[in-house]
Amino acid sequence: MKLSPRLLRKALTSPAGASLKTRAMLLMLSVGLSGVGLASLIRSHHEASLGTDQVLGMALQDLLLVLAVGLVFMLLLENALLRPLRRLAEQAHAFDPTQPPPSWLEKQDGGPRELQQINQAFERVQQSMGAQLRREQNRAEQLRLEVEQRSLALEQARLALESAQRELASLSRHDALTGLANRREFDDALRREFKRAQRQQGLLALAVLDLDHFRAYNEALGREAGDAVLRQMAQLLADRFKRDTDLVARLGGEEFGVLLPGCDRDQAQDLLEQLREALAALAIPHPKGSATSPRLTLSVGLAVFRPAQTYLSPQALLQAADEALYVAKHAGRDRLSLAA
């Protein structure tokens, strides 16, 4: 059987001969067969004088020699070229840029100069990518720290803003000195409770309280002493009116207001008289008090919304309590007066 050049080219370029080792084997076989063919041509002029057995024996010897040479050639090719290339291919396939550089490649010692150059090229790529990876990792860490710091600053700013908003809302609804509700909160609660009492035909007691001769007290003892008395009065009010529906407010200066939903006139009057007695028990001296009362006293005006005696508006109920307070002041102070 003859092996034509076209058949050799087909074998070398076919998928079966795609690897370097396969192509080397086919090349060796073609060289060997060519050698056998050349030897046959040289000996062709002797074929007439030689017997058939002798010709076949010489051809077999040539073939065995070619195979032996090819085997030696393949072993040398395997050790010098194919094995290092396979190792480089495996290492390149396992190449992972996310791993530390020392674990990327095994260093190739010895071997052909071309393989050493390839290995050096891999090492340069390794070093370059390792340095770039470290730079990117450092940059990523810096960005992460910066993001954490800015997130922390934003969270602190948010908490501070919420705290300021709560404080502002509290200041807009509460008196800064006493901590009681202020006039705005009192007016809103009065409108709300008045509508509820109208709708349910219920009870709503409203009292306006005023410390007697308080301006003179401030002038005699100073503002700090006056503020201390106002805080004491606020504490007395908070201790006496503890229901969830009760509202105590500082209306301005030495004037206070009390809303008592669901309280009739007698209940509200009893609670307010107890408050006057509690203030009297403190026996706060008044340097410019009246001859009959040298201590600080309290005047109260009380008005009650009830089905038998209704008021047209919250303002009308508040005005009735103010008028009752005016009567208490002009009747000698230190007393409670009921609205007509």
UniProtKB/TrEMBL annotation:
EC id: 2.7.7.65
Record field: catalytic activity: 2 GTP = 3',3'-c-di-GMP + 2 diphosphate
One of the GO BP terms on file: cell adhesion involved in single-species biofilm formation
Coiled-coil segments: 126-174
One MF annotation (Gene Ontology) recorded for this entry: diguanylate cyclase activity
Keyword Membrane carried by entry: yes
CDD domains per record: GGDEF
Keywords: Coiled coil, Membrane, Transmembrane, Transmembrane helix
Domain GGDEF residue range list: 202-340
First-tier enzyme category under EC: transferase
Annotated transmembrane regions: 24-43, 55-77
Gene3D superfamilies recorded: 3.30.70.270
CC per GO annotation: plasma membrane
Family annotation (SUPFAM superfamilies): Nucleotide cyclase
PANTHER family registered for this protein in UniProt: DIGUANYLATE CYCLASE DGCM-RELATED, REGULATORY COMPONENTS OF SENSORY TRANSDUCTION SYSTEM
Name of the protein: diguanylate cyclase
